[in-house]
Prior knowledge:
The structure holds two protein chains of two kinds.
Chain A: E1 4-11, H1 22-36, E2 46-50, H2 54-57, H3 63-70, E3 80-83, H4 89-102, E4 108-116, H5 122-130, H6 145-160, H7 164-178, H8 192-197, E5 200-203, E6 205-206, E7 215-224, H9 225-228, E8 236-245, H10 260-273, E9 282-284, H11 290-299, H12 308-313, E10 324-325, H13 330-334, H14 338-354, E11 367-374, E12 379-386
Helix pairs in contact in A: 4-14, 7-11
Chain B: H1 3-15, E1 17-21, E2 27-28, E3 46-50, E4 54-63, E5 76-83, E6 88-93, E7 106-116, E8 123-131
Amino acid sequence: MREVAIIGVGDTKFGELWDMGFRDIGIAAGLAAVQDANLAAEEIDALYVGNMSAGRFIEQEHVAALIADYSGLARDNIPATRIEAAGASGGLALRQGYLAVASGMHDLVVVGGAEKMTDVGDTMAAEIQSSSTDQQWEVTFGATFPALHAMIARRHMHEYGTTREQLASVAVLNHLHGSMNPKAQFQRAIDLKTVLNAPPVAEPLGMFDCAPSSDGAAAVVLCAMEKAHNHTDKPIRILASAQASDTLALHARSSITSFQATKVAAQRAFKQARLEPKDIQVAEVHDNFTISELLAIEDLGFFPKGEGGKAVVDGQVGIGGRVAVNTSGGLKARGDPIGATGVAQVVEIVSQLRGTAGKRQVAGAKYGLAQNVGGTGATVVVTILGAT
Amino acid sequence: MSTARLWRENPSRYNLAASKCGVCGKVFFPPRNVCSTCHRKSIGKMEQLLLSGEGEVYSYSIVHDAPSQFEMLKPYVLAMVRMNEGVMLTSQLIDAYPKEVVIGMKVRTTLRKVGEDGPAGVIYYGYKFTPMTDGPPSP
């Protein structure tokens, strides 16, 4: 296996992008990444696109060929592949690109992630999102995506004494980070009262415990490390790429207060990178709900099981804390265009490791991690990056 | 949802048809052909089993933002219930005020209308949970 570097990144603003269609956002992110990498289109060997459900959101399948076409690459007949693993589609597309370069099959690969969610109404968007869980044995009986996470939260509160305020603090912190990110969907800081007084969605979770529906895209350019210096002085190393799966239905697990797939993917990733959780200064984790961030920072090994809530309240995951988590604003404030999310996480880590994250820069960040989750933890991808 | 799909799921939705690994004894719902612990050794040794329908609440949520299908029911209680056989099921908990629901509460399944395919479509049935009156909830 060869070493792989990220030599370019690009992304769109996340939010309700009424004036942009799926192909517009996909191309905008892809072209930005290719420009950032100083590439000529003919150098690109392959394209991977993370996307959860274009078929239901915009009634368009076959989106990898579509993106290749509109980016002008189809004329060169490059292989273009769409990857789907619900919320982990983006992270998994990155992993496929990584494997293609690491194996020696390709030298230069573009990985994109995109989702156009606001062309359907909120209720429909929620129903599409719930198809990442067990449609036959959960959703049919009244389970919604927020309700499944609410049951995780309830159980976490029951087993570890996690409080409603601790959950709410996750949203407050991520909105604070979002206020420093010009590409975030929500750029306004909020207080604890706003979260606690918001209308309930699925108790104990309310509106501000949930990531929004978003449009958006993100892209990165991968290159064999041995050739990266032909394109940039500051390649970012992919030190590890790991993936794990678990049962599709939450109720088929022995415990729901932990995502076993996160634990396993993290163990594999740390082993490959020869690092430990304490070595990581900056992490983007899959906070599609406030409880998800607590599970993530515990299962990744940053904090002991059950102490995630306390760590957030004590400021240990803020900028300047023990590990800066979701400096982009996370899914909560940066936005969550499903297929784009896993790629956008990596774009944020690259910015941090390059030292170009502006107001939200974590001083001296050397190692960063991204954790991308599909469904209620049935797919997890963990990526570890290092500055050179 | 297609009528054929509903029809083929009926044994589990009506009668709680599950399967049990003939090697290690682990119970699966809905039934599976392979045990996730014994893998190949379990092939051909999975036995059919009907769940007793009794269990206790493992976790729950009160759902306010409901899919269009359940709009008329909201707010409703959704629960994960650990059945006496060890396997867990997800469905609505009915016949109880949301405030009365606690983790550990003893419940049993009951056959109810679960949904319908739009105003003129097939009505389908399945299990929901109802509190067991004989026996106090455990803490």
